[in-house]
Amino acid sequence: MSKSTFPDKRTLKKHSARDLNKNMMTTSFRSKTYFSVLLILSASHLLNDLMQSVIPASYPLLKTEFQLDFVQIGLITLTFQLAGALLQPVVGAVTDKYPAPYSPVVGMLFTASGLISLGLAESYQMIIISVGLIGVGSSIFHPEATRLARYAAGLRQGLAQGIFQVGGQTGGALGPLCAAVIIVPWGLSSLSGFAILALLAMALLIWIGSQQRQIISNFIAMQQKRRTESKGTCHGRFTISIGLFVLTFLMFTKNLYSESFRSFYTFYLIEHFGLSIPESQLMLFIFLFSAAIGVLIGGVIGDRIGRYWIIWVSTLGPLPLTLILPYADLFWTGILTVMINLIMASAFASILIYAIDLLPNRIGFIGGLFYGLNFGLRGIESPSNSQLHQQRHPPTIKNKDRNLQN
Predict the structure, then answer these.
(1) Range of lowest pLDDT (16-25, 124-133, 207-216, 256-265)
(2) Distances, alpha carbon 38 to alpha carbons 35, 146, 149, 298, in Å
């Protein structure tokens, strides 16, 4: 596809006035939201994040089979997250200048190869290489997918980002459930079978790529109409820098908390409440799935009442619940963690839309920056949490491992 199909400054100049006027006559009074595209895009996001989420969901089995300690588990997370973090902003910046609507298909090839090699891994080194490949696949997927969700949204940006993120959050939540139902009974070799999902995602992404010309044409017309009806806000470099810093910091703090749960929640439940691996994976699924509900609710409400208040509620709301959590029994641990994750996730769409509004011609870069930077930040904190967990609880965890092996 040529550059002229993407709405940056050069694109707007290249489009003829006749084409733009034709599009405006059909879309000026209704900024079409492409729900079919958003749903397929959400499904591909679900498959992508499901394949990613089987990595942390497999930690208890990896730890037992390869006799890993928590620092080694943390290094697996670090490798996976940094592989995605380093490439995502670069991929986004490149595709902003040189559109590549089918690039997510290439990303799925990396993910499939990583899953196959992880299922066949016989050493710790091979595990590291495999999760690195999966991280690279994710880094190629997110920037272009974020761009298309923006284009397909029309004026319903919060709803569109909510639909897109529901797929990702649901896929992330299904990982522990798949681990309990498939990986635990069939062993780590069953991870290779998840590569079939990559083939399905590739088919969906090929169809989405074929729809981009029509979607972008509508988006250009909408943007042109908005420019003629109102004066656009031009942000200075200082405002953009401060805004991106604040938004990135907010996203980081939320991901720092949720990633700690994702990596070590199952171990906490096994140690403190005596749950089995399948039971702890089910609890992790419930915790992660609550984020899918939260991000959709936050996106819809943000379109109606404004994104400013959504961010405030999402930032301060979980605080009292977090203070109560260490004293809760198993039942209330489940309730509190669901409420915390739901409230925190409600601001994701609002934060991302604010960032895109600051740099509207750099959608791929913004998507890559937010996904990639937070991948890296979450990966960096993981070994620290691993070391802390191992220092505080080595005897108990070892005993649990012996019981699991028996």
Answers:
(1) 16-25
(2) 5, 11, 6, 17
- In this prediction, residue 359 carries a pLDDT of 83
Q: Would 362 be classed as within a structural domain? A: yes
The reply to whether the predicted model has a pTM over 0.85 is no
- Has residue 19 been placed in a domain? no
Count of the separate structural domains present in the chain: 1
What is the SS3 string spanning 307-375?
HHHHHHHHHHCHHHHHHHHHHCCHHHHHHHHHHHHHHHHCCHHHHHHHHHHHCCCCHHHHHHHHHHHHH
The neighbour count for residue 152, using CB atoms within 10 Å, is: 28
Q: Would you say 353 and 307 are in contact if contact means Cβ atoms under 8 Å apart?
A: yes
Q: What is the pLDDT of residues 82-101, one digit of tens each?
A: 887 778 888 888 888 887 88
Parent domain of 208: 32-225+235-405
Question: pLDDT tens digit string along 316-334?
Answer: 888 899 899 888 999 999 9
The answer to whether 321 touches 290, Cβ cutoff 8 Å, is: no
135 close to 83: Cβ distance less than 8 angstroms: yes
